[in-house]
Amino acid sequence: METKAIIETEELTKIYNGQVAVDHLSFQVKEGEIFGFLGPNGAGKTTTLLMLLGLTEPTSGRARVAGIDPTREPVKVKRVVGYLQEHMGFYRDLNARQMLRFIAELNAIPADQAEERIERALKTVGLLEEAEKKIQAYSRGMRQRLGIAEILVKEPKIAFLDEPTIGLDPDATNRMLELIQQLCQEKHMTILLSSHLLYQVQRICHRIGIMINGRMVAQGPMEQLAAEKFGVDGEQHTLEEIYMKYFQEA
After folding, report:
1. 112 falls within a domain
2. What is the DSSP string of 82-144?
3. Mean pLDDT, the chain, as a whole number?
4. How many domains does one find in the chain?
5. Which of 1, 84, 85, 112 is the most exposed place for a label (fewest CB within 10 A)?
6. Is the pLDDT of residue 44 over 60?
7. Where are the alpha helices (DSSP H) in the chain?
């Protein structure tokens, strides 16, 4: 039985001041998968994420996130989606536990449930021993893990992760990738992962979408994309080779 789509767009388009940022975009993300969302700077990836979150309205076309129209019901979408931005914003004079309590209050999570979720989240991301330290003293890797903890406290169906490993050292990067896989496997969370780091996408993503000049030029498992461009099994080519082939021909 084929897994149903939890994110869908149909001819989704966004025009800013006469410039087309997203051009008739149609793609699907299946429930329970890690979907790699690739493309160069200016390809329209972040604009797409903002439309899916209901933070900006499309010029035309439509989207559904967990069956919800983000343009008409943005608050409902935010209840079922967690978002890790490339540059996370925190109240730096708070400690991690205080920050997570604030997130729980924003999401109307009852206090007793919130405390249980916060302790679990801190343990999962490896910040339990650092929970009383002010966020201003955190490294970038620790702040990224705190961003994942925010998502865990919300317990959403879907997580949008925008460049979650940028600026991390190799050990912190490896921890983050393992944590993302854990969200999918143990929490049954659907992950939309936007990244420029192709070897990381190749390592953890089930399917991949390549976006260039506002359009989705390819989507599917790596093996399928390799067969489309090289006529061979995906294991014979890296994702970087496959991506560059699409990029050069776009």
Report:
1. no
2. EEE-SS----TTSBHHHHHHHHHHHTT--HHHHHHHHHHHHHHTT-GGGTTSBGGG--HHHHH
3. 91
4. 1
5. 1
6. yes
7. 45-52, 74-80, 96-106, 111-124, 140-154, 170-187, 198-204, 222-230, 239-249
